[in-house]
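Teaching note: in complex prediction, the entire set of molecules is handled at once rather than each chain in isolation. The prompt given to students was simply: 'Predict the structure of this complex.' The entities are:
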Amino acid sequence: MRTDSTTDDVLRVRGLTVEYEGVAAVSEVDLTVARGEVVALLGPSGSGKSTLLHAVAGFRSPSAGEIWLHGRLVAAPGHAVPPERRDVGVVFQNYALWPHLSVVDTVAYPARRRGTGRTSARAEALLILRLLDIARLADRRPAELSGGEQQRVGLARALARRAALSVFDEPTAHLDTHVRGLFLEELRARQRDSGTAAVYATHDAQEALGLADRVVLLDAGRVVQLGSPEQVYAEPVDLWAATLTGPASMLTTRVARADAEHCTLDVAGTEVRVACKSPELSDPSVRRLLVRPEWARLGGALPGRLRAVWYRGPHTDHLVETPVGDVLIRVSGAVSGRQVGEAVSWSLDRTWALAGPDGPPPSAQPPLSSAASAGWSEPPRR
Amino acid sequence: MRPAAPAGSSPRLLLALATGFVVILVLLPIAQLVETVLREGTGTSTLILSSPEVRTAAVNSVVLSVAVMLLAVPLGTAMALGLRRTDVPARAFWRVAVLLPVLVPEFVLGYSWTQAYGRAGFTDALVGVHWQGVLGPGGVLAVLVANTAPVAYLLAAVGLATRAEPDLERAAQASGAGGATVMRTITLPLLRPSIAAASVLVFVLSLQSFAVPQVMGAPAGFTTLTTTIYADLSFASDPLSFVEAVALALVLVLLTAAVVAPADAMLGPRLRVTRVAEPAAAPLGRRPSTGRWVAAGLGGYLVVAVGLPLLALLSAAITRAVGLPPRPGNWTLDNFRLVIDQRSIEALGRSVALAVLAASLLVVIGACVALLEHRRFGRGMATLSILTLALPGSTLAVALLITYGRWLAGSLVLILLAYLAKLWALAHRPITGALDRLVPEELYAARASGATWLTAMRTVALRPMAPALLGAWLVCFLTALHEVTMSSMLYGPGSETLAVIVLNSQELGRIGPTAALSVLLTLLMVVPALPLWLLSRRLRVARAGHAGSDTGNDSATDPALRGSARAY
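The expected output is the structure of the full assembly:
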């Protein structure tokens, strides 16, 4: 058995490739998770999140690369430590509660496997159930629980494993919005208390950004970007990453001058100086600029025409047609009095110049329904 | 999910049809059976039931069925676990291959075992080894185990696919459980209802089995209830022997009911709770050696259970005389020439005509009852149809004989009625399953687009149901084609089916001709089955975005095969 005692990382993944019948679901992924750290895997369905988690937990064997847990090599081609000897707790998307076991026996299960007697295992399980405020469910079967309750039991079972790493495979995917909030609150609190590391897969950007210390953007099994939530939101590496992490407008315009912190844009003849942290802005050039809805304001020096207004409750989204592209502007509360089609002025506080070659601007079609309220639309395929 | 009851359509005609069917074919005959026994008085019945021969037959039947259950259920469960939970090479092949013992007619399987392992049989001629006990309780037990293990396998495999989601086992592994512990604490407990259902089914199938005890047990003086009923009806001229047959038929159905009724009450609701399984689940066993052992075990089982016996059958059919070694010099087609005569060709025609007619009528009746099941009255009808499946063929034959015998005795019509009564559930089950799998919203969409209920069924529902309808037809057709329990009790001059001719030939001790006829009967099964099976596969509509394609695959083929196993 290979070990490496020089590291403090709970999980280290190196060049991991996992194949399903010859097709790579995860390709050459590198990832480290430090003690107590929460890392979110964010990507659309089919991006390899679950496969990566399954490989870490030991349900899948890699075809290339290595997985190290606590400095111990647990998976490499031809070498696999079985899941029960990996010290990883798992919370499943579909809860995976055993229909023939009561809640208390389910949560006592990991302790029983450590060799604890039935009575003490149950007592230990009850403590965890109390901690999660579901002790009243102890004698119920999974079929008698709501979705939120089932997932709390799933969380309790993972906690009972007392593992240094927990992996969460889209645990809120089947939960209603308000139950999801409660569950995430619980999860965050337990995570703080226990100080264990966690890898959390989700397709929901808000969940990933709000929960994690670091976010990994996955697409087609490859890591597109890895960084803090603020980084991946404000400084996405490309258009795909930008639309995956939140609502994004794209302006195509000439950058007249740029320094480290600011740049001067030429918007239809009007020069505006905005905060603009971007790596490759030394030369004046035509660039694609990312604008998050809260980076622009209604009112100001720039011309535009209101194309659409969506009231969203806490805020109202305005889609403004401008000479350099459509821009989505978010205003707090309900803003009334503006008619679609009327001329509006706007201003820009901040932008982010996307790297890569200049291309035609993406079509900024407004979403047809409120279903797309979280963002503009599906992220474009890379 | 069930499609909503067809609003506005009148099920009265369907209901009348189905009720008439049930009354004429099931309720009236069974009532006649009870009435006959009561009329004869309890004294006669007691006399019959206290005779040592009858008691021996009853004890033999029960002990045999329990023994078959105790062996076949663990064997079938082990096969399911081996095929689904290890990385066995060529999994797709094995999944079809393990069903072979159930696809060979029961009679042919029994007879081929005697030819393979008996004195002067295939192994005796080749390597000088034979099994003394192949004729007798040991042989009957072995063949029934081989014949019913696939049934247990199917139920366990469906249970694994629908109840034991891979994530449930992964959750146990992630909680620290090793392979054996996962099996003990999670997989087997989840399979408990499936195993219990398989036990009941195997017990009932063994209790009803007639051909195997008749071919392998009767020559050695080993009698069961079914072979005693057959002997009473066929050979005895004593009027008391007919009463004995009637009484034993009732005993058989009471024994069945004593097992099935409590089991249905206990297992019914639990079995109905199913979950959708993840498609193409990864095998959880990781050591490649496990898979190879499983493949070796399955291969050995199939060679012993089906391969050698069928080879022996073919060898006996083409060898000039009994006892000659199976060498090319001794090969001849004389046995085939001998048996392909006027009588057997006519019997073949009758068999095929009966099977086609029965299958076609059954699909119509099965569809009617399946549609009615979504109505209030239909529910009871569906339960009844499942009970007829448990009704022993021997009982049904006797009951139909005393009810309609005075008009129809010895006629093909009576045999047809028996087939319809016995095989009803085989047609009904797959069609109900297909109806249940219909997505109600698709029918609603058709209705909302302006289609009437009937048009919606025809344009939207019929196409996805086509494989199930064809599958139901095929199962009924094949089962009727080699049905021998009822046919052999109900035939008269000019109404023998091919299976009856084979049985008679065996009883006359003609080894070569019997083997030749058995080969023909088996070919008769395979020849139409293959193209129709392929057609039903092609008809299957691929559904995008539906989870559980693995399960769906099973449920499309399995009820059909399961059905054919239950028919005896």
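Point out the following to students. The two ends of chain A are 40 Å apart (CA to CA). Chain A touches chain B at residues 54, 57-61, 80, 82-84, 88-90, 92, 94, 96-100, 109-110, 113-114, 143, 154, 157-158, 160-161 (CB under 8 Å).
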